[in-house]
Each structure stands twice: as C-alpha cells, then as structure tokens.
Amino acid sequence: MASRPRGRSVAARRARGSATRARRRRRLAAITGASSGIGEAFARALARDGFDLLLVARRRPRLERLARELAVAHGAAVEVLTADLTRAAPLRALETRLEGETRLELLVNSAGRGEFGRLSESPREALDAELRLNALALLRLTHAALRPMLGRRRGAIVNVSSTAAFVPCPNFAVYGATKAFVNSVSEALHEELRGTGVRVQALCPGLTHTEIFTAAGVDVSSLPGFLWMTPEAVVEASLAALARNEVTCVPGLGNRTLASLVRLLPHEATGRLAGAFGRRFVRPR
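and the corresponding structure tokens:
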C-alpha cells in the first residue's frame, strides 16, 4: 500500500497552521442592530476593511443573508447572534461574550428604536423598551467591551446617537433624551480613556434613510430630499472621524451647521423650533 508523501503532509499542516494564525490576527468587530440601516452599513464597510464580524439583531434571516454575502465578497468570518437586547437574558449573554472576546477591536452600538407620539398617550411598555435598548443596553455592552480592550490597550467603541441629542424632541421625547444620554456618557468616557489606547465616539447622524421612521409609524415623505443622508455616507464619516479620535461625529455639512446653530440658541427656543418642525413635516401613518 502506497504511503502519502511526508513532505506534502508537512506542507499541508504548515499551510493550515499559517491560515489559523492569520485568522487569529484578524480584527473582530461586534455590531448591534446589524440587520438594517446604519448597523448593516457598518458591517459592509468593516468586512471590506478586513474585519471578522459578530452581527447582532432580532431578525435572523436578514443577518444570515448578510453574513453569507460578506463571507463571499470579502472572505470575512461572520457569526450571527439573534438577540432582543431589551430582555435581560440575551443582554447578559452578549455581555459575557464581549468580556471574553480577546480579538474584539471594535464595538458598534447601533441598535435603537424610537416611539412617536405624546408621552402621555404612549404605551408604557414601549417606552420602557425604548429606554432599555437605547440607553441601558448600550451602557452595559460598552462596559463589557472595555475590559478586553483595556487589557490589550487597544480598541474602539462607536455609540450611534443622533442630532436629536442636541434639542428637546416633542413627540420623540424619550428618543431624544436617550440620545442625549449617549452623548454625555461617550464624551465623559472619552476623557476617562485618555492614554489607554481605547477610543470612543458618539456618532450623531441627522436624517438618514433607515427603517426607524417606518417602525415608529410616522410619515416623513414631505421632508426635503437635501436633508437626508445614506447609511453608507454616515458610516464613512464615522470611520474617518474615529481614525482622528474625534469623540463627537456629526456627518454632513448641513447637520454640522445645524448643530452649531442650535448651541447658540436659548434652550427653550430649540424645543419650540423642534416642535414646529415636527408638526410641519412629521405625520402619523
């Protein structure tokens, strides 16, 4: 019986070992809310840039389609995790995973929701879920990711906020408040992390073509087209700002101009202007 040439077997083992070591050296990014919108755009951009991915969202079929596409297009190793982060058990499971992940280079907290309507008329359970997802889950996952990052003195966290963080938001009161929380925590953490090698960013897009308004049950079709950005443009601005270690990223010249003007106005006036803007352009479906 003929034996397999020894040299070929050794070469094959060496090749497999080299592939394994290369895989271990690849950076890992974890992205919540990855099934659509800004989260999906981050997944595409980071796979293109050589990251392996941990994609987290509630809609498994969408995640699996995206994972297959990115694996074929970019050779990325993509893991899918279905989780409702408003619930305690899935949130704890993801925290544990992040704390033990030695390759975690980037966490993108993109999962979020917005409830439209008067606070007094909104379902209490929906408001509770909005607060849990937009603020509590983001905070806890940020805390979990910091441990492996600080241990290696390398890594970054992008917390997806909104220009809604800069003004009171009538009929989106809790959404705006949670985004103000995200900005405040991110800015404080940026100072805490100086000199550690770990960066943090509050990403504050303006109007972006995502599913958030549809999910909130509102019609924004009357808003002028020039006010909108694509998720892809938002993500490219975020990654460029992250490379510069900018703590607050407001993508788009129009959004940056508006954010600067808002800071010059009396706080009470910003709430009235936001209310008038909403009454003019935002309607329940």
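(Above: one complete record from the training split.) The first strand starts at residue 28 and ends at 32.
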